[in-house]
Every structure is written in structure tokens, then in C-alpha cells.
Amino acid sequence: IVDVKGGPDEGMDRLGQALAIRGWVRTCRVQSSVTFIEVNDGSCLSNLQCVMNIDAEGYDQVESGAVTTGASVLVEGIVVSSQGSKQKVELKVARLVTIGKSDPTTYPIQKKRATREFLRSIAHLRPRTNTFGAVTRVRNALAYATHKFFQENGFVWISSPIITASDCEGAGEQFCVTTLIPNTREGTDSLVNTIPTSKDGKIDWSQDFFGRPAFLTVSGQLNAETYASALCDVYTFGPTFRAENSNTSRHLAEFWMIEPELAFADLNDDMACATAYLQYVVKYILENCKEDMDFFNTWIEKGIINRLNDVVEKDFVQLTYSDAVELLLGAKRKFEFPVKWGLDLQSEHERYITEIAFAGRPVIISDYPKEIKAFYMRQNDDGKTVAAMDLLVPRVGELIGGSQREERLEYLGSRLEELNLNKDSYWWYLDLRRFGSVPHAGFGLGFERLVQFATGIENIRDAIPFPRTPGSADF
Ligand code: 4AD
Ligand code: MG
């Protein structure tokens, strides 16, 4: 398998070597004496230019029109220096085998650039485009760097459950899990719920699979807290689900979240961890995904490399929610949504803060009013705010949400009561405050928003292989 990564001299060290590539034809240009076949195997952005003379083995397949865009091929040959200006080396073909043909009249990926919307409708083929190949490799590098960062810093990776009974964020945005049996004759068009209902039509959950309502998790945090209360620093990295009916460029119904939880730590430790983590993974892709990052810099978001260099090199801005409200009230611009202490910041406000007020730098806002934040956040001494923090970045808005957790049993108990949450169902969570409670803090980072931020890709639907959004769960 060839890996001639981009850059001026790449591939030169293979000059004279015999080489085989298996991949997909991007283009095939037949000229009178010579044929140029661009092959890509997904290992890097660059295609390998394969130059084939009419006497090479398998030339009959070129003649018969089998070597078309989208076809899969095996090409063997010798690496030689290239006359072309686009690449230093090319493959002088000795043998070509067409493995899987691709009808050029119906292959959906044509040379002219397709819209992102169209490519979403062919999510099974879009990884064959330059953009999605690059996004996928950078997404992979970000995942690798995430584990590397936490492992190097002594964190233990925890698998939090996907099916859960609790609603971590208390926002009622959960998908319910239940068992269904398809009607064997009509297949999935006729699903039959196995939960018996009583005469008045109410579901009898005690008869269902889990014997109670169960949901897809919105966050692994509460489970991570239990392990942080034993192993100290831990993190989760897994899929989370939200039945938010928001059709925006930043929301998915299924997204991956990274949730570190630090024991014997406060909000300052949490903010320091979030900063160090973000700088580490951004630096990692700048150093290890140069060819793909150059591609984004040219084709997706001009200047993204400079912007990311600043993230690595400069301090993040830090201000309190109260300061942020003052700043917004003093802004010359008119906002659509009102700005008032006690109201949540809308994305137009977040974007103003990071894009205009602080010229593109990441901004951490802390100490939000307790009414607009989740039940588990630690109350500050003022009685009005909680030790929460959100990290905002340009274009994406909220990338990270975190907090110091309420470790005091009596405060947590009365907060649950104030919010009318069922205390009994949090018995195990409250136990952590009964037995060896410690100050602890953590955050959640939406992985697809990180991919958006790091690649410049505009829509979150293009930051994950198979996006799930309201009305769309294809593929
Ligand atoms: O701010 P959120 O709701 O915080 C939590 O879930 C905490 N339990 C995290 C923690 O402290 N361990 O979500 C965290 C992050 C957001 O900042 C955002 O990046 C992402 O998850 N996120 C989404 N990403 C894509 N689609 C959605 N619908 C998202 N909802 C949240
Ligand atoms: Mg949040």
C-alpha cells in the first residue's frame, strides 16, 4: 500500500522501487501513446499518478473502457520521477487489474464539484471525495490525540453506559429505549411494541425489557463521577444522544462526547485541563496532518492554520458570566435575543464574544446563574451562581461545557428538591456524597464540534460519517 504523503519531496525516497497500489480511480485520461490514471487509496489526500503505456499488461482494460472514475484497481509498477508539475513521483505501470468496475454514466461522484447537501444524500460514497477523506483522517487523528493526551496525563478511560435510566442534564431530551418485534410478514413497516398496555392505554413499564423506562444516554458524566470517586482522574469517550429538535449546523441527535472527570479538583483545575487538552489536540493535527490541513486552509476555510496556531500559542480569554453580560450590554450591535442577567446566552451572543469582542480567540465564561444550569453544579458562596464554565470558539460557539460538581450532600439534596427531581432515583449519585466525598470537576466536549473547529467544515453533519438529525437516520 502506497503512502506518498503530500509535500514537495514526498515519495522521492521510493524512487526506483517496485510498488503496488490498491485503490479507486479518480480520473483516467487516455492519450494516444500513454494513459494517466490517478489512483487514491485513502491513505492520504494525494492521488498516485500511474502512467501506462500501451504495451503494459492489462492495457486491454483501458481500451475496453473498464478503467473509469470510481472503479477499484490494483496497479503494479516502478516509482519514477514525474515530468508533471503536480507531483514529484509517479508510477510507471507494469500491470493493471480492474477489481470492481464502476459505470461512469451512473457513478454519482462526478468531476464537477458537488454540493455538501448532495454529498449527504450519498453518505455511502462521499468518503471517496477529497473533503471527506481529509475530514475523516483528521477526525481520526483528533481521536488518537485525545486518548494520547489523557493517557499521558494519568487519566483512566471509562466506558459509560449507552442505555441508562437517568437524565444527566435534566433537559428531557432523551430517546426512549424499548423492545419491538417486527411483524414477520410486513417487516419493519409494521413494528409491534412488546410492552403491554393496560385497558386505559397506559404503558406498563414493569413488563418491558428493563422493567422500567430506559433511555439513550445524554451524557456519561454521572457514571464518570462514580469512577473518579475511586480512580481519581478518568475520562469517557463515546456516543451520546439528544432528542433536541434543533435543525442547526451545530446540533446532532447522535454525537460523540469526551468527558474527563477530575477528583480533588476545582473549577480552576477544570479550566486548566480544558485549555491544555484543546491546545494539545490542535497542535497534534497541525504537526501530523499537514497535507489535509493545507487542503482545508485552501479550500474550506482560508486562514484556518493561522487561527489554530493562535489557539496553541496564545492564552484563552477568561471572564465571568456577569462580565459577559456587561460586555454584551455595552455592544454597539443590536441582538435579536434580549441580554439580561439571568438569561442564557444565545449563539448570536456567543459568536459576538469570541468573534468580535475577542477577535477569534477561545473564550471561557464561568460562574453562570444557577437557574440556567444543571442540578449537579456546585453553588458559589453568592447563592446565585454556580461554578460552571463554557468554552466558546469562533463559528462553532460552545465547544465545551463543564463545572465543579456539588460535593456537599445537603446542598445537592436541596437542589434536587428545588428542581422537583426524584431524589430516590439519584440514590447512588447521592451515595458518592455520603461516603468519602471529594471536590471534583469535569467537562464535556462535543467531538463533532471539535472536528468542525479543527477543519473549518461549516456544518456538523459533515463532521461525522453518518449524521443523525431530525427526520434523517439513513444509511
Ligand atoms: O453542555 P453539555 O450539555 O454538558 C454536558 O452534557 C455535561 N454533562 C458535560 C460534563 O460536564 N461532563 O454538553 C457538552 C458539550 C457541548 O459543549 C457541545 O460541544 C456538545 O457537548 N453538544 C452537542 N454536540 C452536538 N450536537 C448536540 N446536540 C450537542 N449537545 C451538546
Ligand atoms: Mg452546555
UniProtKB/TrEMBL annotation:
GO terms for molecular function: asparagine-tRNA ligase activity; ATP binding; nucleic acid binding. Residues 137-465 form the Aminoacyl-transfer RNA synthetases class-II family profile domain. GO terms for cellular component: mitochondrion. It comes from the Eukaryota. Its EC number is 6.1.1.22. Keywords: Aminoacyl-tRNA synthetase, ATP-binding, Ligase, Nucleotide-binding, Protein biosynthesis. The keyword Translocase does not apply. It catalyses: tRNA(Asn) + L-asparagine + ATP = L-asparaginyl-tRNA(Asn) + AMP + diphosphate + H(+). GO terms for biological process: asparaginyl-tRNA aminoacylation. Belongs to the class-II aminoacyl-tRNA synthetase family. This is asparagine--tRNA ligase. It comes from Elaeis guineensis var. tenera. The lineage of its organism: Eukaryota, Viridiplantae, Streptophyta, Embryophyta, Tracheophyta. The gene is LOC105054002. The chain holds residues 119 to 593 of 593 of the full protein.
